[in-house]
Amino acid sequence: MGNTPARPSTSAEDYVKVIYDLQERGTGPVTISGMAERLSVSNSSVSGMLRKLNELGFVEHQRYGNVSLTETGTKAALAVLRRHRLLETYLVAELGYSWDEVHDEAEILEHVVSDKFVDRIASHLGDPVVDPHGDPIPTREGAIVERESVLLSEAEAGTTGVIVRVNDTDPELLRYLADIDIGIGMRVEVVERLPFAGSLQLSVRPEKGEEVREQALGLIAAEALWLSPEE
């Protein structure tokens, strides 16, 4: 057994996780201002932390350039995401939390639980591959089960598919989606794109046997949902 490398500091973990998340969500290159907005800190705070992460070998960042994770940084990010997403799954499955409550709770717990504890949760839950928001849960080895999906906001009119994932960073948005009864596992069709109105017109079939209904959805909400398209 080799020595396990020491776990990065809480703030280093938060930063690599955010960089990974911004890369993964694929809305363009990761920038200092994008990170500052996401972390609710100043641009200079982000620059200072990136210098430290650069020295630790977690990120590659030239001054004024885009930010990317090294292999070491990616491994660290996946380890935090594994803890975060398994904690969310456990809180929903075993403790009755709603999907809009778990993100903030997991943000705190992910830094303090041991890997042994997280592995116990994983095996207790039957090694799930996605969390309650449809986010992929990395394995212990840092592998991720990829599913083909497209952001709902970018889906063409006529696209039909199943909602497989939702961005969990905004509890108010999750509550709004719950209120209008849009959730994971629902089959939807993009009937019409209304970019100037900032919305999509969807046709939603919640469960087998239920009536199909029409639903207007703003583009901001549509940017938080992923669709697995059907042929």
Automatic annotation (TrEMBL):
Q: What keyword terms does UniProt attach to this protein?
A: Activator, Cytoplasm, DNA-binding, Iron, Manganese, Repressor, Transcription, Transcription regulation
Q: What does the annotation say about its assembly with partners? A: Homodimer.
Q: Which Pfam families match?
A: Fe_dep_repr_C (PF02742), Fe_dep_repress (PF01325), FeoA (PF04023)
Q: Which GO terms describe its cellular component?
A: cytoplasm
- Enumerate the InterPro entries for this protein: DtxR_MntR_Metal-Reg, Fe-transptr_FeoA-like, Fe_dep_repressor, Fe_dep_repressor_sf, FeoA_core_dom, HTH_DTXR, Iron_dep_repressor, Transcriptional_repressor_C
Q: What is its main location?
A: cytoplasm
* Domain HTH dtxR-type as annotated: residue spans: 1-70
Q: Which domain of life is it from?
A: Bacteria
For this chain, the family text in UniProt reads: Belongs to the DtxR/MntR family.
Q: Which PROSITE patterns match?
A: HTH_DTXR
| Name of protein | Manganese transport regulator
Q: Which GO terms describe its molecular function?
A: DNA binding; DNA-binding transcription factor activity; protein dimerization activity; transition metal ion binding
Name its GO BP terms in alphabetical order: negative regulation of DNA-templated transcription
Compartment(s) where it occurs, according to its Swiss-Prot or TrEMBL record:
Cytoplasm
Q: Which Gene3D superfamilies match?
A: 2.30.30.90, Iron dependent repressor, metal binding and dimerisation domain (1.10.60.10), Winged helix-like DNA-binding domain superfamily/Winged helix DNA-binding domain (1.10.10.10)
Origin species: Nocardiopsis eucommiae
The membrane-spanning stretches of this chain are none
